Amino acid sequence: MSRVVFILALLLLTGCEQYQQVKSGRNEVGSFSVTTEAPIWNSVPSGHSPGSLPTWTVDGVTLNSLSFVSGIKDGSPLVTVHDKSKYPVFHSDMLPNEIAELVQSTVARLFTATISRTGELKPLTISGQPGFELEFEFVTDDEVIRRAFVGGTVKNGELQVVVFQAPRMHYFEKDFGHARDLIVSAKLP
What proportion of the chain, given as a percentage, has pLDDT over 90? Predict the structure, then answer.
């Protein structure tokens, strides 16, 4: 009987994880160290974040999310999931366009979506490392067109990527400037 009560209490406690406001200043998220100017972001409990990634949001994950994909080693998928065979894996010798396709494929599978438009792959420097940036759009099952911005680099053979996504109408443009500033100014060890 006491074992059942303990398990029920544990289940209730895990369901009570709260969003936490991200404080202004320097914050450590995965391998990234990022600086926020104003406390507009909230840290999402891992059970509520896409792919169990460290994720921040302004308005809730259904309206926007900033996910930090860090320290991905050769042969690993970008997300933590039960069935890893359904997700493509990173290889340390991938070219930027291959990494961009890997990210898009992962986002499409994670959100049960179809990629509808891909922007131009451009160079981006993150923490002094040569990297890339990409914007793309995807359509989810509920027919919402979402837009994503990705900034990433490979450092010491490990993939480091940040993905900001939100519905194309209103929410993407509303927080894109803040998200891009965080990505561009991110520091890696």
Answer: 79
CATH match of 21-185 with 3.10.450.50: no
pTM confidence score: 0.87
Sequence spans of domains, the chain: 21-185
Q: Confidence class of residue 16 from pLDDT cuts 50, 70 and 90? A: low
Sequence-distant (≥ 6) Cβ neighbours of residue 172 within 8 angstroms: 64, 146, 147, 165, 166
Place of tokens 């391998």: 31
Contacts for 87 with CB less than 8 Å, ≥ 6 apart: 77, 78, 79, 81, 105, 106, 109
| Full 3-state SS string of 42-111 | EEECHHHCHHHCCEEECCCCCCCEEEEEEEECCCCECCCCCCHHHCCECCCCCCHHHHHHHHHHHHHHHC
